[in-house]
Structure formats: C-alpha cells, structure tokens
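Long-time lurker. I teach an intro course on protein structure, and each term I like to show students one example going from raw sequence to a predicted 3D structure in token notation. This year I'd like something fresh instead of my usual example. Would anyone be willing to generate the tokens for the chain below so I can use it in lecture? Attribution to the forum is fine with me.
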Amino acid sequence: MSNHLFSSKLLENAVNEFSKLPGIGKKTALRLVLFLLKQNKDEVQSFGDSIIKLFNEIKYCRSCNNISDTDLCKICANPSRDHSTICVVENIRDVLSIENTQQYHGIYHVLGCIISPIDGFGPGDLVIKTLETKIKNKEVKEIILALPTTMEGDTTNFYLYRKFNDSGVKISTLARGVSIGDDLEYADEITLGRSIINRTLFEASFSS
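-- Reply from a regular --
Happy to contribute to a lecture. Here you go:
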C-alpha cells in the first residue's frame, strides 16, 4: 500500500504502527484503524489506556518469570499447587495452553526464549536463575520439559537436561507418542493433557 494513497498523515502513522504487529499487513492495519475511528471516543481512549497501562505496569513473577500483575504470580502464590513439580515452557502462551487442559497441578518456569542461533538467542539468554536456585535448594522433585517440538526446542531441552541431570531431580518431557504440533498453543486441550499425563523420562525419549 503506497504512502500516496493516504489522505491523512495521522491515518498513515496509525496504519504503520498497527502493521508492525505480528501477522498484520497494511490492508488489515487500515481496516483496524478505520474500525477504531467509528467507535465511541471513550472506548478508543480505554483501548489506548489499557495498552499503555500494560506496558508501564506489567511485572514478571520473581519466582517463575511468568507475566503477572504482582511480584509473585497467582500460580506460584497458590499453596494448593505442587511446588515440587516445575513445568518448563518458552512463554506465557504455553502456560495458558497447559492450564486450559486442567491436567497439570504443579507450577511453571518461563524461559522467555529458546536456544536459536539464527534468531540470536543462546544459552545465556535463557531465564533460569530462579530455577537453578530452587534445584540447588532441593525444592524440586521433577522438571517437565514442555518446549516446542522443533530443532530449537529439542536443542534447549538437551541443554537443560545436561545442565540439571546430575542434580538428582527427575527430568521428564511431554509424551512424543502423542502429536502436539510445533507449538503448545496450537495443540487441542485433550491431546496436550494426555501428553502431560503420559510424560516420559527425558533420557528415555532422547535415546529412543
């Protein structure tokens, strides 16, 4: 969409900003902006305020690195969860996907990324300090590696396995006999739930 098609610089700037979002092209961005222009001013103000408030006030759980409104997220603060079992995931989308299965009752650890040299992420970019501390303090009985079934996910799984294998903690992974897709967020709840219940030792899955 050429710049000369815009009759307003304000409209053009708004479209350009929306088109920076993942999966949003210029045409879709234009439709979204035009939709907003038809809305009540208070609704648009509320929409904008929520984005700014999110950016300024969002926190990351000091225990698991999950996105939270408070220093300790609701999952980590819940005494009824099994705090000795930690499910290691890439991001909050994976937490939400697993929570939706209602088959997992432990807590999580969000890495923030996975090892991917092509994207500029190495082992040093993984957020694992609090996980290391919990393992060192003997607070953990099992780690479930629930990362994407991709080369990058497998590389990260193996790195974490090698790092924590001598700690005495049980290290397991989602059942590979059940296809969960490349990303947990695209797996249906029943399939993902079964893959958690039927998880296997990582060493066994690696050697098979």
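Some talking points for your students: Residues 178 and 194 are 8 Å apart (CA to CA). The two ends are 51 Å apart (CA to CA).
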